[in-house]
Design brief:
By secondary structure, the chain is an all-alpha fold. About 75% of the residues lie in helices and about 0% in strands. It has one domain.
Length: about 140
């Protein structure tokens, strides 16, 4: 029996399609869940911001940051305006990285725990920038 000759499976395209989806869901979940918990504990979020020295720390700022994180995370998960959402989340994460990881540590940022916290936030920024450049991929609600 002769083997049918047809289109070859493009495994690279399949891997890219599913890789973008999985990466998008993982980074989106991080922000959606984190934002949800900020909204569930506004007082705690405000106290954390004040302890870190965030200028203008208030309840409305916690609501704003929480809402941006939830909406941005959900947009990335479904792939709707994912590039824009990724850029907005980078803008949100840059000052947070400074106030939560780098500024409080000062010279201690070179110590393993402080450096790891800063590097994790920088890795999140990297993942968001990759999303902004690559886009949501084929398995998404595009806009």
């Amino acid at each position: 029996m002769a083997r049918k000759r047809g289109k070859k499976t493009n495994w690279a395209a399949i891997g890219t399609r599913w890789g973008l989806l999985v990466g998008r869901v993982l980074i989106g979940l991080l922000f959606a869940v984190g934002g949800f918990w900020k909204l569930m504990d506004v007082k705690g979020g405000m106290e954390s911001m004040k302890e870190l020295g965030v200028p203008g720390a208030s309840e409305w700022l916690v609501y704003l940051v929480g809402a941006i994180a939830v909406l941005g995370g959900l947009a990335i998960i479904v792939g709707w305006c994912a590039r824009t959402a990724a850029i907005v989340l980078v803008v949100l994460l840059l000052p947070w990285t400074w106030f939560a990881s780098i500024a409080p540590a000062g010279a201690a940022v070179l110590k393993p725990v402080a450096m790891t916290k800063a590097l994790v936030k920088l890795a999140m920024i990297g993942a968001l920038l990759m999303e902004a450049v690559a886009g949501p991929g084929k398995i998404s609600i595009k806009k």
